[in-house]
Each structure stands twice: as structure tokens, then as C-alpha cells.
Amino acid sequence: MLIPVCAKNNDRMSSFHQIEVECPACRARQDIRIWQAIDAARNKEVREQLITGRINYFYCSSCRFEGEIAAPLLYYDTEKQFCASYVPAEYLDDEEYVSRTFTPDGTVRAGGFAEGGISPGTDYFRHAHIVFSLPELIRYVLFRERVSQLVPPVSGGEP
């Protein structure tokens, strides 16, 4: 059971909520940080937490129970100009979330990521790559970073 508290951070365009979580195994309560948006260009340490699997992850200090917290996560890089959004599969059953976030063709609505403190103003936000697991998000981020290292930017009309 997740119990939100008031702490929120929109520092440097990345955003998180501090929430109190009750361990499903031993019922101990502890505060954890749930990231909603990561601006990789401005917040490299949080990007590293994602890549190493330490983002939106619960570890009970009392009984050592651990597991991923299913929460939507927007990842974007303003320098490399790409955006990806993790949508936990269970959120697809939330009609309000889906209709508020996406258009019928699967692109992101203007302001669709407003919950994470982000309002897409560029094409790469609107055409965010949607993924349905955190490992898939990590693989996509690493792929895009590798491509940006190996493939020079194109000027002109190449698709």
C-alpha cells in the first residue's frame, strides 16, 4: 500500500514524490522516493540510478523484501533530443490515465506528462518511445545513447 506524503521535488526539471510505503511482507513503513521524470542532460546522477536499477525500487530495511514500484516514469534527454516513457502495464487499465496522457494514435497529448512536472514543447516529447517495463526503458536509453555516439547528426533531408 502506498501512502503519498507532501514532499515533492521539481528540481532541474526532474521530479519525484517522497512517499511512505508499507512493506507487503512485514508491514514496516518507510519513506522512499518515486521518480516521475528524469531530465538526463541536467541530472546525470539520477540517470545513473536508472541504468543501475536503483530507481523506483523498494527495499525493506526490516525484512529485506524488495521489489520494483510500478509507477510511470518519463525519461528525456534535451541534449540528445529523445524521450521515452515507461508505462506500467497495469496503468493501461486506468482509462483516465490513458485518455489524459495519449491521443488515439498513441502519441502524447500536449501536457500529457504534466503529472511529472513536464509539459512537452518539442516533437520528441510528443513522439516519446513508450515502453512497458523498466528493463526495456534502460535498454532503449542505452541504445539511443550508443546511436548518438556512433551516428553523426544529419543535416538536411535524410529520414
Strand and helix map with partners:
Layout: E1 2-9, E2 15-22, E3 29-39, H1 44-51, E4 57-59, E5 66-68, E6 73-77, E7 82-86, H2 95-101, H3 123-126, E8 129-131, H4 134-150
Parallel strand pairs: 3-6, 7-8
Antiparallel strand pairs: 1-2, 2-3, 4-5, 6-7
Notes on the structure:
A hairpin with a 6-residue loop joins strand 2 (15-22) and strand 3. It contains four helices and eight strands; from the N terminus they run E-E-E-H-E-E-E-E-H-H-E-H. It is α/β, with parallel strands linked by helices. Residues 1-12 and 115-119 have low confidence and may be disordered. The strands form two sheets. A six-stranded mixed beta sheet has the order 1-2-3-6-7-8, with helices on one face. A two-stranded antiparallel sheet has the order 4-5. It has one domain (2-150). It is globular.
Quick summary:
The chain has one domain (about 1-150). The protein has a six-stranded mixed β-sheet with strand order 1-2-3-6-7-8, covered by helices on one side.
Q: Tell me, what's the shape?
A: globular
* Low-pLDDT residue spans: 1-12, 115-119
**What is the distance, rounded to the nearest whole angstrom, between the alpha carbons of the first and last residues?**
47 Å
**What composes the largest sheet?**
6 strands, mixed
State the share of residues found in helices, binned by percent. Answer: 10-25%
What integer value in Å does the Rg equal?
A: 17 Å
- With helices defined by DSSP (H or I, 4 residues minimum), what is the helix count? 4
- Beta fraction: 25-35%
Please state the average pLDDT score: 84
Domains (count): 1
Major β-sheet strand ordering: 1-2-3-6-7-8
- Strand runs, count: 8
Structural class: alpha/beta
Order of secondary-structure elements: EEEHEEEEHHEH
